[in-house]
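SEQUENCE-TO-STRUCTURE ENTRY
===========================

Subject: a protein chain together with a token-level encoding of how that chain folds.

Sequence line: the amino acid chain in single-letter code, read from start to end.

Question of interest: how does this chain fold, as expressed in backbone structure tokens?
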Amino acid sequence: MIRIDTKIEHITVDAGKRILVTSDIHGYLSYFKKVIDNACFCDNDILFIVGDIIEKGPESLKTLRYIMELCKKGNVIPLIGNVDAYRLKLIYNLSEESVESYYNYILTMRKWIGTSFYEELAAECGFTINSPDDILLSKQAVITHFENEFNFLANLPAVIETQSYIFVHGGLREKQVSDNSVKGVLELTKYDAFAENTPHIFDKYVITGHWPVVLYGNAVPQMNPVINREKKIISIDGGCGVKKDGQLNLLIIPDINCSVDEISYISYDGMPYVYALDNQEPSTDSIYISWINKEIRILEKGEEFSYIEHIKSGRKMHIPNNYLRNDNECFDYTDYVLPVSKGDRLSIISKNSKGCIAKKDGVIGWYFGKYSTE
């Protein structure tokens, strides 16, 4: 049995070193490589990876091993995330009672992205997962073969404190870092809506992942890092791997002693992009429907669009059918109209007969104009 204890580390960062921070890579190795390359990551930088290295993406095992290799240089510092911890516990605790639900999860991941972390592990050990029994048959071989990888994840710290910043995947339960040592790993790595729900105002900025930043808004959806200056929290999860319109964010802190106003970021989403040929004014009244408030009522079903009522807000609107989930749910949809100028670059999320839902500088909305791929 593997142990995953709450580890809190204290690190002194030398002045003059640039600090890069990302989180929630979720097996998207190409995204991770792209953002660190675009940031010109070098040996003089320090890179913090704030949890959720694996699962929900196409290359979890390769991502894990790539990060393990990077760590040998000494300037890459990963932390454990709730998905990392939970996946380890689940694999070690697999039994006849739990395996069927895990197999159903694997089937869901296979439909979503074509594979899952466990399928990657089993395949390297020579197993194909086509039933719950296949999981149980492969379990011991997987645990034995991937002992180094599993121990690497299990030994990652849950919290790292520096002179000016604290890093934790989900959030701190107690204001003082040391007081969190008695909390379980999952308490610190899975703290939903931390910036909203914590009662604390911290003495240092706490940098977190886990909760996609888009869920902090209710009108105009955006995926860029959010700085809560009142509570001193920086949320950086751009929804990579969990949102079809998500992105991998990389925070850039130019120096340990810099002001928060000097912090910047870059991102990558892997989406096809176009250039706008028309200007467009933004809408002044919009809504974002997430999985938190996903309940809807279909008033009229059409071939491409349906007329629905959003239960929480009472708002009625036409939405593309590909945003419907069953007959009573809709999420990751907005009726916001983007502000667009001719020449703007837009990431294309989906197209339909009315226009396209796109992302501009991390903000998601409709664009109804013409565009070019050049």
User: Anything to note?
Assistant: The chain has two domains: 8-81+156-268, 273-372.
